[in-house]
Amino acid sequence: MRIDTLSYSNVTMQGTQRRLWLREHAPQHLQRCTDLVLRALQRRAGAASRSTVVLGAGACTEVPLAELVRASDEVILVDLDLVSLLRGRDELTVASQRKRVRLIQGDITGEVSAALHQLLQQQDWPRLRKQGATALFDAAALCLEQCRVPDPPELETLSDGDCGLVISSLVVSQLFSYPLLDVLDTIQNLAPELLADQERHRRYQEAAQAFRVRIIRAHLHLLRSLLDQGGVAVLLSDVRGFVFTVHGTDHDANHRRALPLVPRQFFELVHEVFQVVEEGQWEWLTDLPTNERPGRGYEIAGYILHAQK
Fold first, then answer.
1. Tens digits of per-residue pLDDT, 106-144?
2. Is residue 147 in a domain?
3. CA distances from 104 to 155, 170, 172, 215, 303 (A)
4. Domain count of the chain?
5. Which of 102, 161, 267, 297 could connect to 285 by a Cys-Cys bridge, CB 3.0–4.6 Å?
6. This prediction's pTM
């Protein structure tokens, strides 16, 4: 499963060295993330819980962990990648601050990848391959349609209303992309010549889109369920990616190619589940172009949210 490679990819994409790179090449991104979190803290009601939870925390590359600890009785970092969680916590230089950070290793989708993997394993793929692309992608669509998505997922040792500040840290697109890649990996390994047919298979495309929406809705419901009365949520999400070939042209529409990451319903779902207090969008670079590959960047949507009354 792709989710099993998370720790490996996070080694280079998170932590101290990555933050230094971002300070040089994407300082606005770090500042916008920090500012949004600090403004959310100011909006937390005085009677609300002073516990903070960060979902998809990783090594807290974009999350101002020290500031969160100073403003909270406890900060709970949740991620499947325990190594990154430990790296993030250990960047705190004050022992008393580290003691106020609790780590929870867990899949914040409620183990959707594992459930989908089991469904994929039950298919007779060699037989389906002989029947052609339609049969193959019909089976893939069926797996997505039947896959259980807990709504909301349950997290060990966390209960409804536990936290006055809930942060979702640039994780939404990963929640559905990893399991969807597992489906395509299955077909790639079996019949790579048929992989391109996915774009022409309407049922599969509709099933994949519905799967994305179910994952997003469940995640938003998780954020809402963890909020104490008077609490505030911060949602940071990649919404669109882009690639560019010449350094310095990343803002030039003529020199970059956009890659949608979340379905259009994402924005509607946010407003459906929450009262939007503040929202903004900005861009950040994750890689500069080289001779071997293009540079990459993302458009970010950032929200401060209250639960709907």
1. 999 999 999 999 999 999 999 999 999 999 999 999 999
2. yes
3. 8, 18, 18, 20, 24
4. 1
5. 297
6. 0.94
